[in-house]
Amino acid sequence: MRLLRLTVKDFRNLSEVEVEPSVHATIAVGQNGQGKTNLLEALYYLCTLKPLRAGRLQELVRFGAGQATVTGRFLLRGAERVISVQVQDGARSVFVDGKKAASLEEYFGGVAVVAFTPDDLHVVKGGPDGRRAFLDRAVFNRFPAYLKEGRAYARALKNRNKLLKDQAEPAYLAAYDEALAQAGARVWTRRRALMEELSGRAAAAFERIGRTADPATFRYVPHGLKLPPECPFGAADEGALSAHLLQRLGARLPRDGERGYTSVGPHADDVALELGGRSARDYASQGQQRAFVLAWKVAEIENLSAALGHLPLLLLDDVSSELDPERNAYLMAYLSHSGAQVVLTTTDGSLVRAAAGEDTAWLSVRGGAVRAEGS
Ligand SMILES: Nc1ncnc2c1ncn2[C@@H]1O[C@H](COP(=O)(O)OP(=O)(O)OP(=O)(O)O)[C@@H](O)[C@H]1O
Ligand SMILES: [Mg+2]
Questions:
Q1: How far apart are CA 167 and CA 165, in angstroms?
Q2: Looking at the domain that runs over 124-308, which CATH code has it been given?
Q3: Which atom of ligand 1 is nearest to the CA of 65?
């Protein structure tokens, strides 16, 4: 997979941008507040239909403009295809080769991207919500159908919470629990599948980066699931998970009714990160915590590449300034050896020079304008 050309119109502060990226590294350099993250966000949004930063879709449209458009020409499995996304009035429309996409499957069609931002580096220290969002981006990268499935769960959860707040009749609620349990079981199944693929790779990557003899573990912790010992989480099929969630929701109903929200289910899941059997959040150094995140991202790249048969596009937003020199050197060497197509942003080109080669496309970003250096 290769991005041949990116066109951005009225996306955040980028009024009109045209980029021809390198097959390998494309490096966008600019001062603070000029539009570097916006450029990566445009590309990330194009490839995932998820905003890189939380918020409302309308925020993506340039102030004073009617709509934002991002278009990418890709070379994918030997064929060229153009995908395009438009945001207007808080809603998005997607196009493939100029025509409205018939489905999201058609739209994504094997396009894969892994992004790495400074926010990611705080995921070990932060709360479970950050780790869930982090996990879900990886799940979605691996299983694009998860975009819909995750939303179906969120919708069902919102409905139940509203009914709880409105003190609806238990019998009425029970009808909703069924849908919630099914959607929740799908979320658990997807997250578990991703973690089964990823955790071994991430532990191995940590061994290379962590600079400690202690092994790192990455473990998925589904919330509120009390399965019988003869049917552990790893072995339970989706139907069994759904039945268990339904039963748990029923058991919690009186309490949930008092509190006005749903207290069990995937919306409270977490990922346990441990170093030598101890919580990385409580015991690992800052550099080691960052190594966890770096190892996770490396694992994601390897895993996607194994699953898809091609490397994903990599987007790194000003990460080098946040890593210590040795880990940054590891990352830059990894990028240049991987052969992946990567777009990096930085305020200081010297930090990422090790990822650059003769074919690097250097861009300068200033006031929302992106120019190829030397042109
Ligand atoms: N919808 C929008 N319309 C116009 N400008 C916007 C919009 N959303 C954000 N901006 C502007 O984009 C600029 C920030 O761009 P961005 O986050 O890409 O900067 P950056 O180059 O990554 O900076 P830093 O190095 O500090 O991370 C800000 O000036 C902000 O006001
Ligand atoms: Mg930025």
A1: 5
A2: 1.20.1050.90
A3: 3
